[in-house]
Design brief:
Its cofactor is Mg(2+). The protein is of the alpha+beta class and 445 residues long. It has 4 domains: 9-128, 2-Layer Sandwich (Beta Polymerase, domain 2), CATH 3.30.460.10; 138-221, Hydrophobic Seed Protein (Orthogonal Bundle), CATH 1.10.110.30; 222-379, Hypothetical protein af1432 (Orthogonal Bundle), CATH 1.10.3210; 387-444. 49% of the residues lie in helices and 10% in strands. The strands form 3 sheets. A 7-stranded mixed beta sheet has the order 3-4-5-2-1-6-7. Strands 8-9 form a two-stranded parallel ribbon. The chain has a two-stranded antiparallel sheet with strand order 10-11. Strand 4 and strand 5 form a beta hairpin. Helix 7 (156-167) runs parallel beside helix 9. The longest helix is centred in the C-terminal third of the chain and has 28 residues, at 327-354.
Length: 445
């Protein structure tokens, strides 16, 4: 059988330098797993060694060493531009007290069998817990006692769900039960770590299935999700409860972090907005606005970066606003959201429609037409922002405008172009401005 391992020269160099200094060193964790899965070269290369942090620094004295997690035994070494995380063998405990004496002891405290393998080009694969077999079987299984592994680090609960979602694997029964049983541990995990795991989980191809089974776990880190579970919509346009609809939308959007988060939150405000008409039909007036407010609060709490949070909240707020497949309204959207934002909004609308009952499917054609309009506008380099105007600030200063008046005049031109009141041509725009008494009173001309 061919050797599936193809290590970058920097990894081989690091292993050799540590060994030459008298220490053990092995490639460990996700890099080993991904090589066995045939995923090729990854971004993260982790090495476990018997050397202590200060000894690692001495070995790589001629390279740049970053004390990433010095107190936890981890340093990042930059070799020929590649970052390598090199960590002292650990037992799972904090600080120097958690240093292990051997590779075997280190692997015994790793989270899952598929991550508890080590590799060295000379000695080959070290697999003490059946990780390779679990990869073949598609199983996520804790190393040893699941309760102990999760109590060592509560984030491992979400990591387990993430691996199941990304690799389309099943969670071993004892591991799955332990995740349900220990879900409260997530309350003590740092928000930014929760956000990172959720983002990767949401983008997994099996996220819908995993979140359906582990909804109780999801609600610990994002309790605002819980009211959606089993909430019937009592509306002919919806043949699923709010949570099942949300999961369907989640699966229907591309695996982009912004889109997946927007799909998760797009109806999160519905339970609080529910009302029922006399005929028993359910309505959710104003749920887009409330969903956006909840999404903003949750993402702020989870330390999501501002740019992503802003885009997600905007998509959630607009997800139930109709998109007309006509140049003017699409140009307006381009002005407000930009090309990428408009494409994301259309994708969210399409997915929302797919998640509704069959009565709504005719809307899909409308969104396909909107995409065609968008493509044509971009092909024609349509004007949808100030920088696209055929006139610029220097044209206006030449006419005698200065300071804020220049920006105001350009915005007036843009609004007129977007409304179709004037063409985006230099002479037409100048004539339009000169005829506007707001900018050029008759006495000034």
């Amino acid at each position: 059988m061919a050797n599936p391992f193809h290590l970058p020269p920097q990894v081989n160099t690091a292993l050799s330098l540590l060994e030459a200094a008298g220490f053990e060193a092995f490639l460990v964790g996700g890099a080993v797993r991904d090589q066995l899965l045939g995923l090729g070269a990854g971004k993260d290369w982790d090495i476990a060694t018997s050397a202590r942090p200060w000894e690692i620094a001495n070995v790589f004295v001629s390279s740049r060493v970053i004390r990433t997690g010095w107190k936890h035994g981890t340093v990042t070494v930059l070799l020929d531009g590649m970052p390598l995380e090199i960590t002292t063998y650990r037992t799972g405990g904090p600080g120097p007290a958690g240093f292990a004496g051997s590779l075997e002891e280190d692997l015994a405290h790793r989270d899952f069998t598929i991550n508890a393998m080590a590799y060295h080009p000379r000695t080959g694969l070290v697999d003490l817990y059946g990780g390779q077999e679990d990869l073949v079987c598609g199983m996520v299984r804790c190393v040893g006692n699941p309760d102990q592994r999760f109590q060592e680090d509560g984030l491992r609960l979400l990591r387990g769900l993430r691996f199941a979602a990304i690799f389309r694997m099943q969670l071993a029964p004892d591991t799955a039960m332990a995740i349900h049983r220990n879900r409260a541990l997530l309350q003590a995990v740092a928000p930014e770590r929760i956000h990172s795991e959720w983002t990767r989980l949401l983008c997994g191809p099996d996220a819908e299935h995993v979140l359906r089974i582990f909804a109780d776990v999801a609600a610990v880190s994002i309790p605002e999700l819980a009211p959606m579970f089993g909430f019937e919509q009592h509306n002919p346009h919806h043949d699923k409860d709010i949570w099942e609809h949300t999961l369907a939308v989640l699966s229907a959007v591309p695996p982009d972090p912004v889109l997946r988060w927007a799909a998760l939150f797009h109806d999160i405000g519905k339970p609080q907005c529910f009302s029922c008409s006399e005929d028993g039909t359910g309505h959710f007036y104003g749920h887009g606005t409330l969903s956006a407010q909840l999404a903003d609060a949750i993402l702020t709490r989870l330390r999501c970066d501002t740019a992503s949070r802003t885009r997600i909240v905007t998509l959630v707020r607009r997800h139930d606003t109709p998109i007309l497949p006509e140049p003017k309204p699409v140009c307006r959207l381009l002005n407000q959201l930009g090309p990428e934002g408009v494409r994301q909004l259309i994708e969210l609308h399409k997915a929302d429609t797919i998640g509704q009952s069959i009565l709504c499917r005719d809307r899909l054609e409308q969104y396909r037409q909107a995409e065609a309009v968008l493509d044509e506008l971009l092909r024609k380099k349509a004007c949808f922002s100030r920088k696209d105007l055929a006139i610029h600030g220097k044209d206006l200063t030449a006419l005698g405008l200065h300071g804020k008046a220049v920006g105001t005049a350009l915005q007036t031109c843009l609004e007129a172009v977007l409304d179709g009141r004037v063409s985006n041509e230099r002479n037409a725009l100048l004539a339009f401005l000169l005829s506007d008494p707001l900018h050029f009173p008759p006495s000034s001309i």
